[in-house]
Design a protein that fits this description.
By secondary structure, this protein is an alpha/beta fold. It contains six helices and eleven strands.
């Protein structure tokens, strides 16, 4: 009696079950989850940062940073730019850039806050800030605009590298707050309508200062 199509299929199933199923290769957990960027980290960061909704300025020198910041303040009519970090205050004094350095009525008046950061993440375009600076937890969150001055040497490939950088900086005395900011604050919780500034600044602006050493002849 010849086999029917059904008999043939059942026989093949039985034969296959008698053979051990091939096992996939064990994953190498030492490899990074995401491959390292192949391009220049500064270029990768800038592309990711802008794609996430950030405003990016590249500054070849401190003088160039002064020009960029002065022009941005004028275009956006930022009369109340708050700066609390001593080094930033000193830098803006040198460039003749006006700012407010105290905390008097700042919640009602702050158009923008300028801070530094701990690291920049190239893959995601994120800015890692902490509560360790004089800007604390507040100046990167409450003002309508968050301005950041960072340096090219602070760019790392991925989030894990940024956290390692913070750990190396502070050892066992980690800041009480570490936060990753990727683009402006946004939410679509209400009727799936995207709203900016619901939980923080409506815009994030980054001035990247090139601090690479000059090439020697």
């Amino acid at each position: 009696m010849s086999e029917t199509s059904r008999d043939i299929i059942l026989r093949r199933i039985r034969e296959s079950l008698q053979q051990p199923a091939p096992q996939p290769a064990a994953p190498d957990f030492t490899l990074p989850l995401h491959p390292a960027p192949h391009d220049d980290l500064a270029v990768t960061f800038a592309e990711s940062f802008v794609r996430a909704g950030g405003v990016f300025y590249y500054c070849v020198s401190e003088e160039h940073f002064y020009d960029q910041l002065f022009t941005y303040k004028k275009e956006k009519a930022l009369d109340n730019l708050y700066v609390w970090e001593p080094e930033l205050k000193k830098l803006l004094h040198s460039g003749g850039i006006g700012f407010i350095g105290d905390e008097a009525d700042w919640l009602q008046k702050a158009d923008a806050g300028l801070t530094t950061c701990e690291a920049l993440v190239a893959r995601t375009g994120s800015v890692l800030v902490s509560g360790a600076s004089a800007s604390g937890r507040r100046l990167s969150i409450y003002p309508d605009q968050h301005l950041v001055l960072a340096r090219a040497s602070q760019i790392v490939p991925d989030i894990g590298d940024a956290l390692k950088r913070v750990q190396g900086e502070y050892d066992d005395k980690l800041p009480s707050m570490i936060s990753l900011t990727t683009g402006p604050s946004r939410t679509a919780d209400i009727e799936k309508t995207l709203v900016l500034g619901a939980h923080g600044p409506r815009s994030i602006v980054l001035f990247l200062l090139d601090d690479a050493p000059e090439a020697t002849a």
